[in-house]
């Protein structure tokens, strides 16, 4: 799949997060504010990121390999002293779902290292204020970048 096509899918995807101690879910959407329940969960953290270890470079991978990589990501996040909530990325109206994590307490360099190690094209980032943003890795996205899209350096 081309990067411009992937970019469009990332922009329309919904990034669902399971909230602690409740059956409720909260949804991050690119260019929208962080939902109030997630702002409350952030506490005094500067921001959060939605990341996965599934399907590196958007190439389908064996389910067992995906689960192993995701467990490794959880271990790395916890070892860094960050907090996380389980989540899943999905495209509305499509069967695709990708298990993910919402992480608070990682700085951008640490986030970028994890995204690189796990072969991710993009992560979703948000602060307590401002819009949810898409952070892209690599070249060739072929799109004008709106204020809610950033290229990792």
Description:
This is DUF3293 domain-containing protein. The protein is an alpha+beta fold and 153 residues long. The protein has one domain. 29% of the residues lie in helices and 28% in strands. It is built from 4 helices and 8 strands, in the order αββαβαββαβββ. An 8-stranded mixed sheet has the order 2-1-4-5-3-6-7-8. The chain is globular. The model has no long low-confidence stretch (mean pLDDT 91).
Concise summary:
The chain is of the alpha+beta class. The chain is about 30% helix and about 30% strand. The chain has one domain.
Biggest sheet, in brief? 8 strands, mixed
Count the domains.
1
- Give the N-terminus to C-terminus distance in angstroms: 23 Å
Gyration radius (Cα, Å) is 14 Å
Task: List segments where confidence is low: pLDDT < 50 over at least 5 consecutive residues.
Answer: none
Structural class: alpha+beta
Mean pLDDT: 91
Helix count, DSSP H or I runs of 4 or more residues: 4
The helix-strand sequence is HEEHEHEEHEEE
Overall geometry comes to globular
Which bin fits the share of residues in helices? 25-40%
Strand content: 25-35%
Main-sheet strand order equals 2-1-4-5-3-6-7-8
Kindly state the number of beta strands. 8
């Amino acid at each position: 799949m081309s990067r411009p096509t992937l970019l469009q899918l990332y922009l329309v995807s919904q990034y669902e997060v399971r909230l602690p101690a409740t059956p409720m879910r909260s949804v991050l959407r690119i260019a929208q504010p962080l939902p109030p329940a997630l702002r409350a969960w952030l506490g005094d953290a500067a921001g959060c990121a939605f990341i996965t270890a599934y399907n590196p470079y958007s190439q389908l991978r064996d389910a067992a390999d995906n689960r192993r990589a995701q467990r490794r990501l959880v271990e790395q996040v916890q070892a860094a002293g960050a907090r996380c909530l389980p989540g899943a990325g999905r495209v509305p109206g499509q069967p695709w779902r990708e298990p993910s994590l919402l992480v608070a307490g990682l700085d951008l360099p640490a986030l970028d290292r994890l995204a690189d190690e796990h072969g991710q094209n993009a992560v979703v980032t948000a602060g307590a204020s401002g819009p949810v943003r898409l952070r892209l890795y690599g070249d060739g996205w072929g799109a004008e970048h709106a204020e809610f899209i950033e290229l990792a350096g």
